[in-house]
Design a protein that fits this description.
40% strand; single chain; alpha+beta; 11 strands
């Protein structure tokens, strides 16, 4: 998802995955995907939350509550402009915008297979997510 995302956000986009984002109060995060300001500077293996334009998490069976509840509250509280939850099991994406001290004001659900979703970023660029090319869960193996 990260390579295609970089192309859609612009050739100078800083798109990273599994890199720590420093948040205030000794919190940190290693999101599945982050889009950063073009002038973002890494300090060691970490970026500041102030450089983040969009964070995305991909739901797994063990992370659903965290991705939907805990991360929504955490990223909103720290003013991350856009938080995207990609849920391969529900085959939908939840786009959170307008951060507040307790989460986000707006949450819009988009189904897989419905084309391209343009997402405006705080720096004026647009990130385009192709809802036709998102991850789907692996089929269960037949153990009979």
């Amino acid at each position: 998802m990260a390579g295609a995302s970089a192309a859609r956000a612009g050739r100078h986009a800083k798109v990273t995955s599994d890199v720590y984002i420093d948040l205030p109060a000794d919190e940190n995060s290693a999101p599945a995907l982050a889009i950063l300001r073009e002038d973002a500077r890494r300090e060691g293996k970490r970026y500041s939350f102030e450089d983040v334009l969009l964070i995305s998490e991909v739901v797994s069976t063990s992370s659903a509550r965290q991705d939907y509840d805990d991360c929504t509250a955490k990223y909103g509280r720290h003013g991350i402009p856009v938080y995207l939850v990609v849920d391969p099991y529900a085959q939908e994406v939840v786009l959170h915008t307008q951060p507040t001290g307790t989460g986000y004001i707006a949450a819009h659900t988009h189904k897989y297979g419905t084309g391209k979703l343009p997402i405006p970023l705080a720096d004026g660029r647009t990130f385009t997510l192709d809802l036709d090319e998102l991850p789907r869960p692996e089929p269960e193996a037949d153990t009979r």
